[in-house]
Each structure stands twice: as structure tokens, then as C-alpha cells.
Amino acid sequence: MSSTPPRGATVIGGSQWGDEGKGKLVDMLSQNFDVIARCQGGANAGHTIVVEGQKIALHLIPSGILNERATCVLGNGMVIHLPTFFAELENLDKRGIKHQGRLFVSDRAHLVLDLHMIVDGLKEQELSAGAASIGTTRRGIGPAYSSKASRGGIRVGDLNFFEQTFKPKFLRLVENKHKRFGAFEYDVEAELKRYTEYVERLRPYIVDSVQLIHQYVHEGKRILIEGAQSTMLDLDFGTYPYVTSSSSSIGGACTGLGIPPQKISTSIGVVKAFTTRVGAGPFPTELLDETGEAIRKEGREFGTTTGRPRRVGWLDITALKYTMMINNFTFINLAKLDVLSIVSELSIGVSYTYKGETLKAFPSNLEVLAECQVVYEKMPGWKCDISKCRTFLDLPEQAQKYILRIEELLGAPIRWIGVGQDRTAMIDRFPDM
Q1: pLDDT for residue 304
Q2: Span of 30-34, 103-107, 284-288, 322-326 with lowest mean pLDDT
Q3: Which of 226, 229, 308, 317 has a 20 to 30 Å separation from 45 between CA atoms?
Q4: How confident is residue 252, by pLDDT bands cut at 50, 70 and 90?
Q5: Sheet of strand 264-272, all strands in order from the earlier edge strand to the far edge
Q6: Radius of gyration (Cα) for the chain, nearest Å?
Q7: What predicted TM-score, i.e. pTM, was given to this entire model?
Q8: For every residue of the chain, which 3-state class applies, written as one string?
Q9: Confidence of residue 337 (pLDDT cuts 50, 70, 90)
Q10: φ, ψ for residue 120 (rounded to 5)?
């Protein structure tokens, strides 16, 4: 974006099954924003930023924390595991990145307890016994959102009233989970003691985030909203039940921060130049051959949060048109184009057929999706290093054609193109916009 982005809010969201490389774009753009906020998810998100060859992995704190002029907010729609939060603070301290006075946590955000992580594992065991495992990160995210939805969750603000609110809620939650899952090992007293110690440590960060965000809007601050996961993992719009537990499409920015839709001026969709996903569920363009393995190795496609190898496939235009329809992205960031430099011939999945008929849209029924056949277009690769390219015309002709064909199929401008790991390895096609 230009050095003076529009006032109001800009949302960056994923357009596939997550892991598109959103953190890199957030890190780059955040230099021009006053506020960077997260609106949903928890420590199941993983953003890796490469700064001067050094990797910085973040799971809860917005990637924009690296801009020391910006304020960062963890919004009400998030679920927060405090041990992870404090570990990230310590990591920032070690790197000399100051966060005091410019990092805030919503008092309305819910807490992820170690209890939720135990329950996450127990639920996966139940499902796997019936060959229906979801493939979660086992970070307690789903159980924490489940507690929230059933009105039994614990909010960050409850820590301010430890004895009269936090403790009784906590004990009721433990009792409820033992009734549901039977006996399991969990040291209740140790957990209570730990949270008594967290109260004072967390207090300087706790704010009424809804009031704070609206104050920033009223002051004309430029706000960048960093989405976690992606639209194809959205609880409503994703490949249910192989989804996350929050609204990870553009609507989550409004519900997860309390910001009105009219205040969102720009939405940016991050699209990996191929497709990846983790966990179970149908994956129409999946590559189960040497090409898929080579792309996984070249792209270092292993989860930031779990370390699990990601499933790899060709770019899926049917899925992307669906997420475009939901989010109405203003611009596209095509990420990790450099990874495809090892491939001689590329394929783009342009449509699905089901029982001999072309589908008009991405199907909601997974039984249909699992039986879809993908129609591909083939394009020549470029087989050369593009990591030093900094303008569109620097790219080899075959890479330019690949980008322009994707742009044509999606009907949205591809503005940013990721050509390497480092934070500077990005082409902006329209820098004056």
C-alpha cells in the first residue's frame, strides 16, 4: 500500500486452508499503520516472519508487534492461552523488541486453560476411534470456544475478580468436564495457583478493547486487522467439520473486535501460489506424488504451531472463487511464488465436475467434494531463481503469465507477489495506490 493507507480498517485474511503467509504481509504493511489487531483464533495460528535471516514465530501476538511505533490489540473474539502469551513476551524481550504500553488484551477475550487442551486430546481420541478425527492442533481452541458458546467460558476480565468470579467458574468447568469425560489427570490446585500468579502479571495489558478500538477509529487511526486461519477453515463457510472454531472470514473482523462493517475500507486476500492444508478432510487438487513432496520440501511446508507436514496441491480456483465471493477482496497477495520455481510444468485447477457435470460453485457437501474431478489448465514453469526480483517486469515471462492467468480467473487485482522468505522479498505492482 502507499505510505499513507486509508483511514479506518484494513483486513488481511487467508483465502485457502490457512498457512498462506499472512504474517509476512502484515509485517510489511504494519510499518504504515497505527494499530494492528487480531480478531479471532488463538495459539492454533502460526505466523513466521524472517527478518535478516532470523525466524520469528508468533502464535498469539500480532505480527505487527515488530513495528515498534504500532499498538497491538488481541481482540474480544480471541481465545488466549496465558502461558503461551507470556512465553511470546519473553521471546520478544530476548530479541529487544519493546512491547510495554503498546500491547493490549481484551477483557472480553476468553481463556484457554490447560484443561481445554486435555479435553481437545480426549475428543480427538473419541473421534479417531470412529475413524473421524478432525486433525486439530490440540491447543484447546475448540473446547475453549465450546465453553464460550455454552456460556460456561472464562473471560480475561474475570481474572480481575478472582475469588468471586474466576475461581467458581473454573471449578464448575472442571466438574463439567469430569462428568463428560470421566476421570483424567489434572491438577486443579496447581492450575489455580498458577492463575493467581498470572493476575498481576497480566493486569497492565487488560483493556476494554471495544472502547479502545472505537477510540482509535474516532481519532482517525489507521487499523490493520490480522486474520488467523482462513476462509476455508471458517466455522460456517469452511469444509465443515474439518474447520476451526471461529469466524475466520471477513465477518470475524467485525464480531471479533466490535468494529462496524462500514469502517472496513480495504480487504486483502492472501493466496498461496499453490494449495496446502493440514488435518483431515477432502482436498481436490492434492498432490500425492514426487511433485507434491518436492513442493513441500522447497516451501518448508511444516506447521509453525504443530510441526506437522502440510498436505500440498495445485492452485484451486473453484475454492478461491468461493472465498472471493464471501470476502470481496479489494486486492490479492500471491504468496510463495518462488517455491514453484522448481516445477517444470504447472497446473491450475480451474473447475470441478461431479458425475459428469461442471459445478457452478464450491459444494457444501463433503461427500460431493470427495468425489469431484478437477479440470486443470497446464502452464510452463520458469525453472529459475526469482528471489531477487522486485518488479513485475523483473519476473520471467512464464511467471508473469501464471500471475496474469490467476488474476483473470479470479477477477481481482494481484497487487503483492511473494518471491522469497525474507520480509523484503515482495513485489508491489501498484505501489502508488
Answers
A1: 67
A2: 30-34
A3: 317
A4: very high
A5: 206-207, 103-106, 71-74, 35-38, 222-226, 8-14, 264-272, 331-335, 414-418, 426-428
A6: 22
A7: 0.91
A8: CCCCCCCEEEEEEECCCCCCCHHHHHHHHHHHCCEEEECCECCCCCEEEEECCEEEEECCCCHHHHCCCCEEEECCCEEECHHHHHHHHHHHHHCCCCCCCCEEEECCCEECCHHHHHHHHHHHHHHHHCCCCCCCCCCCHHHHHHHHHCCCCCEHHHHHHHHHHHHHHHHHHHHHHHHHHCCCCCCHHHHHHHHHHHHHHHHHHEECHHHHHHHHHHCCCEEEEECCCCHHHCCCCCCCCCCCCCCCCCHHHHHCCCCCHHHEEEEEEEEECCEEECCCCCCCCECCCHHHHHHHHHCCCECCCCCCECEEECEEHHHHHHHHHHHCCCEEEEECHHHHHHCCEEEEEEEEEECCEECCCCCCCHHHHHHCEEEEEEEECCCCCCCCCCCHHHCCHHHHHHHHHHHHHHCCCEEEEECCCCCCCEEECCCCC
A9: very high
A10: -55, -45
CA distance 320 to 223: 26
Pick 205 or 23 by higher pLDDT: 205
Summarised one tens digit per residue, pLDDT across range 104-146 is 999 999 999 999 999 998 988 877 665 555 656 678 999 999 9
pLDDT tens-digit series, residues 364-383: 999 999 999 999 999 999 99
More confident of the two residues 423 and 380? 380
Between 54-58, 297-301, 353-357, the lowest mean confidence (pLDDT) is in 54-58
Q: Count CA atoms closer than 13 A to 410's CA, side-chain side.
A: 33
Grid cell locating 5: 493507507
The identity of residue 260, as a single letter, is: P
Torsion of CA 398, 400, 404, 407, to 10 degrees: 110
Cell numbers at residue 2, please?
502507499
Give the span between the Cα atoms of 171 and 161, in whole angstroms. Answer: 15
Contact 370, 396 (CB under 8 A): no
Rounded CA-CA distance 18/26 in Å is 15
